[in-house]
Automatic annotation (TrEMBL):
This is DUF202 domain-containing protein. Keywords: Membrane, Transmembrane, Transmembrane helix. It comes from Streptomyces alfalfae. Residues 9-71 form the DUF202 domain. It holds the Pfam family DUF202. One of its GO terms (cellular component) is endomembrane system.
Amino acid sequence: MTAAEPARDPGLQPERTRLAWRRTTLSCTVAAVLAARAVLNRGPSPTGVLACALCLLLWLGFLAVAHRRMVALTAARPRRLTGRGAWAAALCTLALALCAAALVV
């Protein structure tokens, strides 16, 4: 930090952002569990197992992005979320929702 740059008071913004990432992670977890449950209730078919495996992979991908972001928010001056990270999170969330919806219907 330079002498001209004032100390940053982040307030509660980083904590709110971490909580938002945790809520989204919880939502993705519920979608993945419901997808697995749907496959188990109907009996394992090859397409159901493949869709469930895809849901779990997307869930793991989202967990990786969310964990990186939550760790980055612990810094005194957290770096911005990269465009690549934002796109990865958005695509994982959307694809997971579509896969889970396809399994539930």
